[in-house]
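Recall from the previous lesson that a structure prediction takes nothing but the amino acid sequence as input. Here we apply that procedure to Porin from Thalassospira indica. The sequence below is the only information supplied.
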Amino acid sequence: MKKILLAGSAMAAFGFAGAAQASEPITLSLGGYMEQWAGFADSDTGEAKNAFQSDSEVYFDGETILDNGIQVGAHIELEAETSTDQIDEQFLYLSGGFGRFEIGKNDSVADSMSITAPAVGPVGVNDGDMTAWTDSVSLIDTVPSSGDQNRVTYFTPSFGGFQAGVSYADQSTTNGTFDATTSTTGTVTSVGGYNDDSAGDSMNIVSAAVAYSGDFDGFSISVSAEGENRGEGNWYGVGANVGFGAFTVGSSWGHIEDDYGISEDAASDRGGDTDAFDFGVAYAMDAASISLSYAYQDDGRDTATLDPTETQAIDLGLRYALGAGVSWRSSLFWGEDDVSGGDKTDAYGVVTGLRLDF
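The prediction returns the following tokens.
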């Protein structure tokens, strides 16, 4: 009986290998983007950090379809400008009627499936680039996920517009540590990074999300609910966009518990919960789009170094398609930090430039 089982296993393995060899070779495609911006900002703490800024990446995608219909591929992102990792995201995926599996370094489903308010300018109020132009305003983020980590991810197939996903990253040191990030003014610039000690601590990360997207007579709707556990706490949020005619209106909300990213051995937690929301409206007219968005965050932390802070920001964005893959984009923005027991600091500025998608 054992010999029969071994023989059957060998035949099955041989058959699978033969099917794999009969499939088409993996084809490689290139993509990516380049952004070049010029801007001006003024604030209570001084002028813009840099009048000229840029961001560029090149994507390498390889894919084949096996004889059994399963898609197998890889995605690699090469950073054009970086002082640390030259490779941003890199992962392998398997896709078919069963859904999609990904394994490698990439974002969690809580990040990739989330929906936030519409915005078309280069400086967004929600997890945008406002903090890249000024130190006077903290980063507002309704989706403060753990970012690129070595993880495994599963997406279900779409059932009538519904889809769910789950991600898991272990506490391997290759996933880095969870550290606080503050600006030169002492205000928080990343609500997603807090740790219980200065040495840092690696923790398991479990993320989940569910989303729905549908088109109806005269309008469309997209909604999401997502969350993530790290350490002793969680963050979670919801978002929705509604489109009708040339208009899109949307909003999102996120909540971070004070012990998110804190290990059970920590002496104390972050000192308070954080709540954030955004709201925006966009209008598209042929090649041009315009958006107005607002965001607010109440960071309730009260520690020896960081006081509770209320942050709000507004962005007026413009995008105009000059051709296939070429768009001119501009933003007029304003933001303000109100630190409890301290002074208000505000900033405003304008940014314009080109984005190339290829």
